[in-house]
């Protein structure tokens, strides 16, 4: 019965790895959804990400997924909200390493550039068992990929656009049968001196933003070796540095500056046995944040090992352990946190059409047990006719969030007595897909979730301190559809999505809490997006739109922010070549109708902007 | 409601002092003065008892809602205490734009209401209809309060933060023109100036971190005299020709009186009230109401009334709770207004108390309610 309470579906068609097979050119990466039966996953491949080169993860999530992104301005802090949860309820991974800041417990999507990654996947709902800490609303998985046997590759691309946009990218790679190296270097720059109407000044004059400059540089290096037939080594390194002028809220004239610098490195060793894969993983994530002159630094060290075993066609398991040491050196405290977590996943494939998974995880941090998180899921393709099929996805699971280092140790105010946040999620999804003259995939998911012991910082006299205050109940519907076909020599594609999300406070500070029964702040009930794309002999054109409904500024909802809808347009040609060189060209208009909008109260956002992209590829 | 009575008053003769016997008569309300005076967290005094035109927002209580840091949703609510009619967000309602700032202080002077936003501006409205008259919108950093002297505005400002969040460059900004305009001069003062008081050709500055009162000559626009205190000055209050200074220390509050002709301290009255905040309201008679907050680890807030009569003062706890953020007093109905920020998670609430501390009613107001202007 519990199993049927929850649900889910599936949009991207990622291959499901049921048996251990390693293609010759492949660098092994365990599939995200290998044990994620019943859970909703969306993936964007390298090709899907091409249109987002020079932009950030925030943009693609906002424009093409059901996730709401709280943006504090152009290029400013952007945090994801999955299914009405908060920014700290999203786990973010890079090549399997959790990269959320251990002091803040979240990531800033604006400084995760699309240029640095090759694949992005989103998983929705509680996945404490599969992904661990902070996978409450969902999780984001960034991957870099490399291949063997592709020879030499190189490319340069340049983007020039409105408001001083000037992005440069260099890629280079070499791979033989047993060695692969791939390098990316990028610099992204924008003055962000866009015009807006300053509501904070008498007469609301039109002014130009003069304190939102953004500069980001980075280097990504991927390496892979086939040591021999059954052993593979893979390494990835990512350095990213962002300097931002912090865009003031209208009515303020703050001149803050923020510098973020991250170094992330991961080393994977895979041993392929007859029916099993051993994976040893070690990694480091270092984050340095300098806000005006105050420096906060955290280091995380990871060591993990797991064993993925195929017993029979029906039974697969994966068992592992991970150790984490998080060290925080912040302006107001220096503290360490050591964590150990054990996880186990089992998948039972009853038939070609029916598979179940059960996932379990127990995390212990600084000697304290986080909530034990089991998860049960099922994928059932129950109807098939010709090239059409219907699939039912359902899952139920738990999630948790360990109080962040700031929550526990910030001086003054940190509360070492905090309990972990704990959540419960169930979902049920139906997926209808078919192929033929028209290819389609339509899915509908209903989810229901609650988050307990939600941590809120409250002022106590002059000191703010966090407490386990809230209980929140979320439910909603996510629809996602894609249609593709051809008319003559034209290919067309239509993608649509709609999300309804009801996330209300069910327990607050006390019974007089005005937020009780009301929608959480900055959580739109309605969100939708659509994109139509046409393609003919190298020419492509797309028109996309996204709509964000009304949302409140505070938990008690007295002030609502108006809904907005934006349109983006792009035009491209990718058949231009000379000898071995290719010159893909594209042109984009963002916010075509120059709509005046704010995502968050009094945070100015840019109007219409133009962008040209030119690449040279070998 | 617990009633804790703190003992008598300690009178310290001020350093500069000429003994002036505390005269009870001086504490009496000057009704004429108060007819146009205001009570707020930052009391500012009109020197004359001039009449105001009657408008939509006359004869009532303006509730100052500071707003939330980073959201700039400060606003003003209007309350008619007789009919209990409450009008929300009257700045935005009358001017069709958000206030867009953190509202630190409201000062009623020269027929204008000055809305001081610590996010870096002063909006000037007609108090009768709240229509915008002007603004000081550039060159300010963290303005705290304002005083009018002749045709000049004096604005106390913490100045910008430095690397360690200190404010070593505090100043008092001068603007020529009662309807705002550009800052013509910044007069350097000690760290973190708070309340200002204008008298004849002088501006008195409560320099809260330096435990001083600095006196500016309004014509020369320079600090001409400094008075050292033994506690942090927060608020001025003029009554019956005497300028009172409310100052706080960890375990006590001190009320000083200043001699306005010699610009020296006269007396100080120390009351053993611990953990006092800068929130105070004077009832215009012989009482004041202050908020206290115990801080870590218990975070108990209280409304304490201090009654100074002759040489003695009694401090009585009227109400305890948490989240108290502003205090006011309605002299007509003898009612105490206590604002609660509700943790800034959403709107705050106001509780109306009788003079003896019994709760009359409670209602929701804007975000971070921090003070009241009764007129």
Automatic annotation (TrEMBL), chain A:
Compartments, record wording:
Cell outer membrane
- GO biological processes: siderophore transmembrane transport
- Keyword Transmembrane present in the record's keywords: the answer is yes
- Domain TonB-dependent receptor plug: where? 38-138
The UniProt entry lists membrane topology as:
Multi-pass membrane protein
Domain TonB-dependent receptor-like beta-barrel span(s) in chain numbering: 180-592
Keyword set, alphabetical order: Cell outer membrane, Membrane, Receptor, Signal, TonB box, Transmembrane, Transmembrane beta strand, Transport
Q: Which Gene3D superfamilies match?
A: TonB-dependent receptor, beta-barrel domain, TonB-dependent receptor, plug domain
Q: Which InterPro entries match?
A: Beta-barrel_TonB, Beta-barrel_TonB_sf, Plug_dom, Plug_dom_sf, TonB-dep_rcpt-like
Highest rank taxon of the organism = Bacteria
Its cellular-component GO annotations read: cell outer membrane
A GO molecular function term, named singly, is: siderophore uptake transmembrane transporter activity
Instruction: Family membership, please give it.
Output: Belongs to the TonB-dependent receptor family.
| Protein name (database record) | Iron complex outermembrane receptor protein
TrEMBL record, chain B:
Q: Which Gene3D superfamilies match?
A: YVTN repeat-like/Quinoprotein amine dehydrogenase (2.130.10.10)
Residues in a coiled coil are none
Q: Which InterPro entries match?
A: DUF5074, Haem_d1_sf, Host-pathogen_enzymatic-act, WD40/YVTN_repeat-like_dom_sf
Q: Which domain of life is it from?
A: Bacteria
Q: What is this protein called?
A: YVTN family beta-propeller protein
